[in-house]
Design goal:
The complex is a heterodimer of chains A (about 110) and B (about 900).
Chain A lengths: L7 H11 L5 H8 L3 H14 L2 E5 L2 H6 L6 E5 L1 H13 L20
Antiparallel strand pairs in A: 1-2
Chain B lengths: L8 H10 L4 H24 L5 H20 L2 H21 L1 H30 L10 E6 L8 E2 L7 H10 L3 E13 L4 E2 L2 E7 L3 H5 L5 E2 L16 E3 L1 H8 L9 E4 L2 E8 L15 E4 L3 H5 L9 E2 L2 E6 L5 H19 L6 H8 L3 E5 L6 H38 L1 H9 L4 H38 L14 H28 L2 H6 L9 H36 L10 E6 L9 H14 L4 E6 L10 E6 L8 E8 L3 H4 L4 E4 L13 E5 H8 L8 E4 L8 E9 L14 E5 L9 E8 L3 H15 L4 E6 H8 L1 H35 L1 H9 L4 H34 L11 H27 L3 H6 L2
Parallel strand pairs in B: 2-11, 4-24, 5-10, 7-9, 17-22, 19-21
Antiparallel strand pairs in B: 1-12, 1-13, 3-5, 3-12, 6-9, 7-10, 8-9, 14-23, 14-24, 15-23, 16-17, 16-20, 18-21, 19-22, 20-21
Helix pairs in contact in B: 1-2, 1-3, 2-3, 4-14, 5-12, 5-14, 5-15, 6-10, 12-15, 12-17, 12-23, 14-15, 17-23, 17-25, 17-26, 23-25, 23-26, 25-26
Classes of the chains: A mainly alpha (about 110), B alpha+beta (about 900).
């Protein structure tokens, strides 16, 4: 895969994804990163194969009468890279969400 | 169902930013952002937190989408491009036959062009690999009219002239002189030649060449009477003879009875000032008397040096030119040798020196082949043009097959520009693959060409590493060809009215008039261009055959042997006796039929003089060729003796001078009267006064200097009457052994006499063949290109005719249903082929007459508008058309009316 080392921001985003925050906006909320940082980072991680993406089932979106959302999750390769990154960024393992907002409902 | 119940300004912002997202990703991208924003909005509303602060927050987030969109930009171009390329490759793979023909014909065309351009670049365009070559100029004589004595090369100067230029000129920051020669490195036995470059002291420094090893010469090395100075060896020689040993400096090289210490090695890319030649050894000019054993080379009667200079920074070439002309008069007065022949003194003193650019060096190869190479480049260009016309034709055929596909794409919203780009990418792929394959072909072809131009006696050295000029030439060819054959079909097929095609049934009754007319036009152009090339091929082949079969007037199947016995240090009186002994020993070898001495080898050496026949009162001086031969020369070469006698033992240095002349001499000097018994005068040369000879024999005409010339007058002197013959002899030997046996036997004989004698052999026939290299080159390549053009024309005609048959199936079916016989249908198609060729010939003929004069200088024994060649070419084209038309015509006769009409 393209990138063996994750930058701090990337590792932070991966850590958030790993903790179950699977949408771009949730990641922004828990990491405090700007949308202009999070989205390009997600695309890059996706290109590198560390992150995979899926569309929310349209059933749910229809029920809520809004467009479906795209959610992201850490792949196997991503998990290896994240473990390596956590060795370097020790503080990241004490990851705490910034807000008290409840995490988005899990996909079935 | 309304998905966007709440539509805040953030959603509008996303739509706006979405415009710059690459189209392929846009839908997904927008949906993702809208999904997120809407969800957040819903969530905030549920939490009752949808206030102005959270709304502003949403707006801020959606503005962040801009960064995201920017990040996706690089995917835009690459994406469409890759899509085009992938699609293009798929289309090409689908039609493997078409792709192979297209790439191969392009590769041959591009390869041929690149190879010939490469050679031209090397001999004509490329500057010398020296410092600031554009500053170099050559100082040369405007003409060599006043040059008497030995002229080694033209133009050239003598050593005293060089000394005067060196001391008088002010235009150049540095001047230098150089001359080439060969030296024999073998101590005895068969000669091992090395190419010697004599240079003046400033040669390397002025050119800015540093030694790869050791040092280069300086002015101290080049002083008159320098004895045996240090020697510099060329890079190749160093690699070949010393295996690139870095301890070579200080080692000795021994030749010409002297030993020279190696002081330096030149860099690998430096070959001297002459493009197409290289050198093995380099000595200062002052060393030539030592090597040659004769100090004539430093007197004013041997013309062998070329003078170059580097312009001073503030001098232009024009100023330098004016300067050298201005100093000419004083310079020639000062350098005039005291023994110069009086009739030539005025011409000598009137000589003018000019300065001409020399950044590309000098080259005999260039003078001999440049014109031919430009002509061949033009021919190769035509071949490429034909290949392009052919491809355009094939692509048009394919385009009409894809018409519906293109129409559907247009109907679905593809823009015309997008479709043209797609089609051009396909063409570009073809030309890129063609160029890559062509580059490989070019490498092989230029190697073949260099090998073709090399002879054992005169190896050609050309640096074949492709430079930027060759690479950009090939790249330009790729783009140009792509546009030539790709653009028209692309414009054509995307320009048709949509509705017409969508409405049309897949099988019309006849094909569209307009489209087939364009394709016919292309075929006609192809035939016309091919006709030019085939005519050229026939012309050059006939020219070669004329020159090969030209009568030389003598038997060519003869061996020449050059024997040097200077090492024996014979006294001048002993030398003629020794030569006779050598000749007797050679004649005694079993199998040798005849052998003779000669100083001039026909068609290789030459010499001339002014002469007149002694008659009462008048003295009409005319020019004649000279030769000096021994008894048996005419018998060995089987030149008929028509009157008088051959030279024999009666002719000695002490006896009255005699001469034998040929018929052309009798015609020119005596209006054809019998010359035997007449007295012939030869005008003075440096060293000899006017001399009278009694003509004792008349022999048949022979070619003297050049196969292409008419028979000229020749005066033969007796070799035995040469007062200052050197310690070497040249023999002509005719034997009924094979060459290896003869040379082996001669080497054994010479070794028995004295192992220090050296000898070199050359067959007369290969020597003569080497003089018609240019004709051979032209005939071979023009023949090859002509055949290629025929093949391409054949493919092109076949293509259009089979397309015609395929698209006229219904028409043919109707014709046959209405009673047309198979014969009628057969001729219907073949007639079309016939008319295409006739039209092509009609267009091609005026072009041939227009272009013919370009080739006239390169033809021998026929005019460029030789009717036989042109008629032959036209008939050949017609034959090709019949071949190309046969299969489609046959196919037309097999059309089954029932099958053809079933779909109607």
């Amino acid at each position: 895969m393209a990138r063996a080392y994750l930058s701090h921001n990337m590792a932070l985003i991966m850590q958030a994804l790993d903790h179950g925050y699977r949408y771009g906006f949730d990641i922004m909320a828990v990491t405090g990163l700007a949308s202009g940082t999070v989205y390009p980072a997600l695309r890059r991680l996706e290109d590198a194969g560390f992150v995979g993406s899926k569309w929310e089932s349209s059933r749910i979106a229809q029920a809520e009468q809004r467009p479906p959302r795209k959610y992201y999750e850490v792949t196997k390769a991503g998990r290896t890279a994240l473990a390596e990154a956590l060795q370097r960024f020790r503080l990241l393992s004490h990851f705490e969400p910034l807000t008290t907002e409840k995490p988005a409902p899990q996909e079935g | 169902m309304d998905k966007r119940k709440r539509t805040g300004p953030w959603l509008w912002l996303i739509t706006l930013i979405g415009v710059i997202v690459p189209r392929r990703l846009r839908a997904d991208w927008q949906l993702e952002w809208e999904g997120e924003l809407s969800y957040r909005e819903t969530l905030l509303a549920q939490w009752d937190q949808l206030n102005w602060r959270t709304k502003l927050e949403l707006l801020r987030h959606s503005a962040g989408a801009f960064m995201d969109a920017m990040w996706l930009q690089p995917r835009r171009w690459e994406d469409a491009m890759i899509q085009d390329v992938r699609f293009g490759v798929r289309m090409l793979l689908k039609n493997k036959g078409f792709t192979a023909v297209a790439i191969l014909s392009l590769a041959l065309g591009i390869g041929a062009n690149t190879a010939i351009f490469h050679l031209l670049d090397a001999v004509r365009l490329r500057t010398l690999p020296v410092r600031a070559p554009q500053e170099l100029a050559e100082v040369r004589l405007t003409d060599m009219k006043g040059a008497r004595g030995g002229v080694w090369r033209e133009p050239s100067v003598t050593y005293p002239i060089w000394e005067q230029i060196r001391d008088r000129q002010q235009a150049f920051s540095g001047v230098f002189a150089w001359g080439t020669d060969t030296v024999n490195l073998a101590p005895g036995g068969e000669v091992r030649n090395a190419r010697m470059l004599y240079v003046s002291g400033d040669f390397f420094n002025t050119l800015g060449i540093n030694a790869a090893l050791g040092r280069v010469f300086s002015n101290e090395d080049d002083q008159r009477g320098c004895g045996a100075p240090g020697i510099i060896i060329g890079h190749d020689f160093w690699q070949r003879e010393f295996g690139g040993d870095t301890n070579v400096i200080g080692r000795k090289l021994t030749f010409a009875d002297h030993s020279f210490e190696i002081v330096g090695v030149t860099p690998a890319n430096f070959f001297g000032m002459e493009v197409g030649r290289s050198f093995d050894l380099s000595l200062p000019v002052c060393a030539i008397p030592l090597v040659r054993g004769n100090d004539r080379y430093l007197s004013g009667i041997v013309w062998w040096l070329t003078v170059n200079g580097r312009l001073k920074p503030d001098w232009s070439l024009n100023q330098a030119n004016a300067h050298t002309q201005a100093i000419s008069s004083d310079l020639f007065n000062a350098s005039l040798p005291s023994n110069y022949p009086p009739p030539s003194v005025n011409d000598y003193l009137a000589s003018k020196l000019i300065a001409v650019p020399a950044g590309t060096g000098v080259s005999q190869l260039r003078e001999k082949f440049e014109q031919s190479l430009w002509l061949l480049l033009a021919i190769a260009g035509l071949v490429l043009l034909i290949a392009c016309a052919n491809l355009a034709n094939l692509l048009l055929a394919r385009a009409s097959a894809r018409e519906r596909e293109i129409a559907v794409r247009q109907a679905l919203g593809a823009s015309r520009g997008r479709l043209i780009r797609q089609l051009l990418v396909e063409s570009l792929l073809l030309s890129v693959f063609g160029t890559i394959l062509g580059a490989a072909i070019a490498q092989a072809l230029s190697r073949f060409l260099v090998a073709f131009l090399s002879t054992t006696a005169d190896p050609v050295f050309i640096d074949l590493a492709p430079d930027w000029r060759v690479l950009s030439f090939a790249a330009a060819l790729a783009v140009l060809t792509c546009l030539l054959f790709g653009l028209m079909p692309a414009l054509r097929v995307t320009g048709t009215k949509l509705g017409l095609i969508m409405k049309a049934t897949s099988r019309g009754v006849t094909a569209g008039r307009q489209r087939i007319t364009l394709r016919r036009g292309l075929s006609v152009v192809q035939v016309a261009l091919s006709l030019i090339l085939v005519t050229g091929a026939l012309l050059f082949t006939r020219s070669l055959s004329n020159i090969v079969t030209a009568k030389t007037g003598f038997q060519e199947d003869v061996l020449t042997a050059r024997v040097i016995f200077r090492q024996l240090n014979l006294s001048p009186e002993r030398i003629p006796v020794f030569k006779d002994e050598l000749l007797e020993r050679i004649r005694a070898i079993p199998g040798v039929e005849s052998a003779a001495l000669t100083q001039i080898i026909p068609l290789r050496d030459s010499g001339g003089a002014n002469a007149w026949i002694e008659r009462s009162g008048e003295r009409q001086m005319l020019n004649t060729n000279l030769s000096r031969v021994g008894p048996g020369y005419f018998k060995t070469l089987q030149i008929p003796l028509q009157a008088g006698r051959d030279f024999d033992t009666r002719d000695k240095v002490s006896s009255p001078p005699v001469a034998i002349v040929n018929q052309a001499f009798a015609r020119k000097f005596l209006s054809g009267a019998n010359p035997v018994g007449q007295r012939l005068w030869i005008a003075a040369t440096p060293g000899t006064p006017d001399t009278a000879y009694e003509i004792v024999g008349l022999v048949g005409d022979t070619k003297y200097e050049d196969l292409r010339e008419e028979f000229g007058p020749i005066v033969y002197y007796a070799a035995a009457q040469d007062a200052d013959a050197g310690a070497g002899a040249q023999f002509l030997i005719r034997a009924h052994l094979d060459q290896a046996e003869t040379t082996g036997a001669i080497k054994r004989v010479l070794n028995e006499i004295n192992p220090a004698i050296t000898v070199s052999f050359q067959g007369l026939k290969p020597m003569i063949d080497a003089t018609i290299l240019r004709e051979r080159l032209l005939a071979t390549l023009a023949g090859f290109f002509g055949a290629l053009a025929l093949l391409l024309a054949c493919i092109g005609l076949y293509g259009i005719l089979s397309y015609g048959v395929a698209s006229r199936t219904t028409e043919l079916g109707i014709r046959m249903a209405l009673g047309a016989s198979r014969r009628d249908v057969f001729w219907l198609i073949l007639r079309e082929a016939f008319w295409l060729v006739v039209m092509g010939v009609i267009i091609g003929l005026p072009l041939i007459f227009g272009l013919a004069r370009l080739a006239s200088a390169l033809l021998f024994g026929l005019t460029p508008t030789d009717p036989l060649s042109i008629t032959g070419a036209a008939l050949l084209m017609l034959a090709v058309a019949m071949v190309a038309g046969y299969l489609p015509s046959r196919r037309a006769t097999r059309v089954d009316p029932i099958v053809a009409l079933r779909y109607e």
